[in-house]
Amino acid sequence: MAADALPADRTPASAPPVTPARILLVDDDPLALELSALLLEDAFPDAALTARDDPAAALALFGRETFDVVVLDFDMPGLNGLECARRMQAIQPYLPIILCTGAGDEMLAARAMQSGLTDYLPKAAMSAQSLHRAITRALEATRQARTIDDQRRDLELFAHALAHDFKQPVRQLLTFSQLIADEAAEAATPELAQHIVFLRRAAERLGALVEVMSQYTLLNAAPEIHAVDLDQAFEAAREALSVYIADRGAQVTATAPLGVVQGNDALARQVFQNLIHNGLKYNESATPSVEVSLAPGESGPVAAFRDNGIGIAPEHQEAIFQPMKRLHSASQYAGSGIGLSIVRKAMTLQGGQVTCASTPGDGSVFSVRFQP
Amino acid sequence: MNADAFAALKLKFRARCADDLAVLSAAAPGAAAGADLRQRIHRLAGMAGSLGFDELGRMARAVDILLQASDALDGAEVEALRGALVDVAKAA
């Protein structure tokens, strides 16, 4: 996908009106329906009001008509308000729905909000003013939710562009800087040779940044959860890092067998690779080491990654999981500053979490909890 | 607010209150409230206040909540609701 094609690939969301033009009112009680209609006409005199005393008849309107907001009774025979709302929003996403509740239905408020309903209104407190307030607030909340979703989609498209479109020019930069270095090897002045080295290093850093940024931003979809063999994840990570481990003269060990947990294989391997690499990178020991173990925990099995690295001060032990957060300069320790952010995101997606315990100068232990 | 429509709606509501009172009075003290009576009380609780019948709305809400915990139609709250219904219905 070409970067300049991005805007054509999405349909811009039209912002909902500040006041509703079309209101659907649903209540099985004819008198309550009449009362709500009067109050709504008072609250929004210019709106077109459609009233139905049967939830099935109201649902049948969807597909043929669209509404800016629905005012819906909860307690209706045959189809309660929550289910009716769910079906309406399945046909018309981003539909603001105000659920009208009766006495003793306070618990419904929480369920309504969890179900994606925009708001609720106790019937006993219903007035033109309360309806106006609730509907205006619902329209604004819906507009904001739409904006956030649009921005998230934009970010995902940008991540796809990073993943697919940016990598090729970076590869070309690397290739041609190498060609220039080879061709100019004999004739280049020391300054030119040095400049070519700087150019190549900059291209390599750019390539690494593009890679991790696309990994991080594409890490959003809910993964399939299944049995994950952590011994296999460990071996895969060690194999992927074999050159680096050899270069550092490091030891990477596991208290075998680690065992099986519930998670996602690809994400677990990424977590293992990033944590082992992190433990070896920030490490000044003569023989850098990372030891991995697995133990049962109260909320699920916990894999511990213990290193003999430089350690992390307590005030930084949470900040290190933030994207692009670096505690050291790039000249001290190369890297993107996003490896641990990927670990946290990957664990959250698997229903687990990651924490850090460390003493500066005495190594760190990263604890990765999987779901029970 | 359309004053004529609102006044007409209040008249209909008062008429329904008379029906509600008849159903409530026919129920034996201490007997379980049937589905019809439960629905009538629930609807009263929902709309009486919005029509300006605050006292009736409060009484109906109290009984509505009681009926969610117990089936029995008894107690001072039911008597208070009956009285409030009489007051609203007599103008129908």
Describe this structure in words.
The complex is a heterodimer of chains A (372) and B (92). Chain A has 372 residues and is of the alpha/beta class. Chain A is 46% helix and 16% strand. In chain A, the strands form three sheets. A five-stranded parallel β-sheet of chain A has the order 2-1-3-4-5, with helices on both faces. Chain A is elongated, with a radius of gyration of 29 Å. By secondary structure, chain B is mostly helical. Chain B contains four helices and no strands. Chain B has helices at 3-26, 35-47, 54-69, 76-89. In chain B, α2 (35-47) crosses α3 (54-69). Chain B is elongated. The interface between A and B is medium-sized, with 20 and 23 residues.
Gross morphology of chain B: elongated
H and E string of chain B: HHHH
**Content of β-strand of chain A:** 15-25%
The largest sheet of chain B, given as strand count, sense and whether it forms a barrel, is:
none
Q: In terms of structural class, how would the helical and strand content of chain A be classed?
A: alpha/beta
Total beta strands of chain B: 0
- What is the CA–CA distance across the termini of chain B? 22 Å
Average residue pLDDT of chain B: 87
Strand content of chain B: under 5%
Task: Note the overall shape of chain A.
Answer: elongated
Number of beta-strand segments of chain A: 12
Radius of gyration of chain A: 29 Å
Estimated helix fraction of chain A = 40-55%
